[in-house]
Structures are given as structure tokens and as C-alpha cells.
Amino acid sequence: AQSVTQLGSHVSVSEGALVLLRCNYSSSVPPYLFWYVQYPNQGLQLLLKYTTGATLVKGINGFEAEFKKSETSFHLTKPSAHMSDAAEYFCAVSPGANNLFFGTGTRLTVIP
Amino acid sequence: DARVTQTPRHKVTEMGQEVTMRCQPILGHNTVFWYRQTMMQGLELLAYFRNRAPLDDSGMPKDRFSAEMPDATLATLKIQPSEPRDSAVYFCASGLGAGYNNEQFFGPGTRLTVL
Question: Taking CA atoms, what residue in B is nearest to A42?
């Protein structure tokens, strides 16, 4: 069975501080892993994805995530938060079939 | 700039009325998904299609919801009769399927309010 756990439904950071959003997954097969971002009143946009190869994946807007198989984790980071990063972030896993299984989301607040 | 489009963007209706939401997937995409997003339940998969055929609609209340793809450029989600608990944002997403890592491209959503 596939599932995604996002630790922390709300995360607040100061502008310029490190952003760390946690995601752990379970999958019965080697997974594809995704992070999506949702800005207010918009649909989800792909931030980055891991399929195969390099375990450190770089995405848009300065975000990156590292696939750690031993920890079944795919945490999202950004060295320095910007006000425009305030949004909801969703981690998702695909077991290689058609579906994506989404986590419950983490709302990021950036404090000026 | 290819993108998924959804109409209407907002819909307010009264309980018992029929609601139809439309989605135009990105040209060439062969998989289409319908999701519902609420504060309480988060993002829920309702149904999805591949090559216009329904593959899974187990997330959808069968008695009042129906999803179809009349052609490759149009997907519809209907609710009849609508109820206040159906109030949510409904997203359509499209993709190229497993051969392309299952990446999904989301539309802007239809915000439905049932009074």
C-alpha cells in the first residue's frame, strides 16, 4: 500500500530562514516522489520530482528535496525563505501505476 | 503555454440543483483526474480516466456523482442532486501516465458552493 505522511500541518519561518517541510512515504515498489505547491485560490503546481538517478533533486524557486530510501523520506528544503513562498505544500508518491497519493499538506507561513 | 482549463471557476447553487463542471485537459494528455479539496478532508481523488475510459471512480459517491469524457478534449463531472456537503473546490488534472512518471498538471479549480 502507498501512503504519505507530512509532519506538521502548519510551519512558520522568518524571512531569510531555512525552510524544512517533512515528508515520509510508504510504498511497496520503488516510488516516484513529488512536491507540489498551491498558492491561494490556485491549482497545484509541480515544484520538483524524483524518479530515478540522483537523490538530490532541485526544483523551481530555489527548493530542493533529497530522496533517502533508508529513511523513506523526501523532505523539502530551501536555504532562505521569501515572503512569496507562503503557500500550501503537498508531498505525493506514485507507485508506478496511474495514481498519485497525496499527503494532507503543510501550510507555510513566512514572517517578515 | 499548455494548461488545463476548468469552467466555471465559481458556482453557487441551491441544494437539489444539478451542477456540471467541465475540464479541458492539455492536448495530447491521455490521463485525466478529478479531485475534491475541502478543509476537513484535504485533497481526495474522485475518479480518473485513461484514454477516455474510466479506470477508477471508487472515491466518488455513485448515487449523485458521475464523471465522463465525451471526447479527448472534454471531461465532465456532474452532481445531481447537489447537497451542501458537496461544497468544495474541484480540481481536474491531466497527464501522460505511467510512462512519464505520473506527473499531473492541475487546472485552477471550480469552487462550488451549495446553499
Answer: B108
